[in-house]
């Protein structure tokens, strides 16, 4: 990594830090922010879809409303038609609530959930779907395949499979208390983020049919990776406070602190610099796109624009959602100061 760590501060301090200062990622990202005009409609429809036959009450229902997933979807797919935007919003909402949706399964382990979900994707028209998560998977995927290109369908399933493999490893690490080294963490986090299936949804949402060899080009892959890194690493910064209060160490900040021997603010600054470098890398790669002919170039430009929408949309949404900063998101966005929560018992 080219980001430089500051000199480790003394670890003999008696008092733990009470706040952190976030990096200014919003100002570093100069991409245009858009919001899809179908936001209100798909938000209402997805809410009915998610709550159908469910017992999402109390804190779970409040968490859904505070999440503001419809806003995230509308920022990340700003030009999608209403049916496509609805599928994207159903998927993102379902992804955030996957734990809740698998409550009715005999085994809540990630492997069991993965089996149900992937079986539903490979056999969307099969009748047997005992678990609610399987029924919901079939429901949104049957709508997706109506217009998604074969390549987008394949990439969606393959990358969702990678997601489940990586969250299984994450669960193993969490249970053992193991903290991976930075390179191993980055490799795993690129799949646990769930971004890769969302990149396939960029193709679907914009009715693209880009050949496999173009999608496999090193520049296209690098652009997707840079966008994934920005979304994922910035999320680790924004979610750190809530996660540290739970004792969760599967986050880049404690990984950097543990393996590099730096204090909390130095680790936040380091990860923030990595985020800025990922934006810079995206801009640089975008300026070196090769040409595949007029029609393919047109579709590639839309796809790459969709990655940029995800970068800028996820940054702004993180302060609008209540998931990371409660109802203080806009205040935190302005001041960049986060008061640390106490560790839960």
UniProtKB/TrEMBL annotation:
Pfam families: Terpene_syn_C_2. GO terms for biological process: isoprenoid biosynthetic process. It is an enzyme of class 4 (lyase). Coiled coil: none annotated. InterPro entries: Isoprenoid_synthase_dom_sf (IPR008949), Terpene_cyclase-like_2 (IPR034686). Belongs to the terpene synthase family. This is Terpene synthase. It comes from Crucibulum laeve. The lineage of its organism: Eukaryota, Fungi, Dikarya, Basidiomycota, Agaricomycotina.
């Amino acid at each position: 990594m080219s980001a430089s760590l500051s000199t480790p501060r003394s670890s003999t301090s008696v008092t733990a830090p009470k706040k952190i200062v976030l990096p200014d990622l919003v100002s570093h990202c100069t991409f245009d922010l858009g919001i899809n005009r179908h936001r209100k409609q798909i938000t209402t429809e997805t809410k009915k879809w998610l709550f159908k036959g469910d017992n999402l009450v109390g804190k779970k229902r409040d968490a859904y409303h505070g999440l503001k997933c419809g806003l995230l979807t509308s920022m990340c797919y700003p030009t999608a038609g209403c049916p496509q935007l609805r599928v994207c919003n159903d998927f993102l909402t379902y992804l955030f609530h996957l734990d809740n949706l698998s409550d009715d399964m005999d085994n809540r382990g990630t492997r069991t959930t993965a089996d149900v979900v992937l079986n539903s994707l490979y056999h969307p028209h099969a009748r047997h779907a005992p678990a609610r998560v399987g029924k919901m998977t079939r429901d949104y995927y049957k709508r997706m395949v109506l217009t998604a290109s074969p390549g987008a369908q394949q990439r969606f399933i393959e990358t969702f499979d990678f997601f489940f493999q990586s969250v299984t490893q994450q669960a193993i690490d969490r249970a053992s208390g193991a903290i991976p080294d930075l390179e191993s963490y980055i490799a795993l986090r690129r799949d646990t983020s769930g971004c890769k299936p969302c990149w396939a949804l960029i193709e679907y949402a914009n009715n693209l049919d880009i050949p496999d060899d173009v999608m496999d080009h090193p520049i296209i892959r690098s652009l997707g990776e840079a966008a994934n890194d920005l979304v994922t690493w910035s999320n680790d910064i924004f979610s750190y406070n809530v996660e540290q209060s739970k004792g969760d160490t599967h986050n880049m900040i404690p990984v950097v602190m543990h393996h590099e021997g730096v204090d909390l603010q130095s680790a936040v600054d380091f990860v923030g610099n990595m985020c800025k470098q990922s934006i810079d890398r995206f801009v640089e790669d975008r300026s070196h796109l090769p040409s595949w002919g007029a029609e393919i170039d047109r579709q590639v430009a839309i796809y790459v624009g969709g990655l940029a929408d995800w970068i800028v949309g996820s940054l702004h949404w993180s302060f609008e959602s209540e998931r990371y900063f409660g109802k203080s998101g806009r205040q935190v966005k302005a001041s960049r100061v986060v008061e640390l929560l106490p560790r839960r018992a």
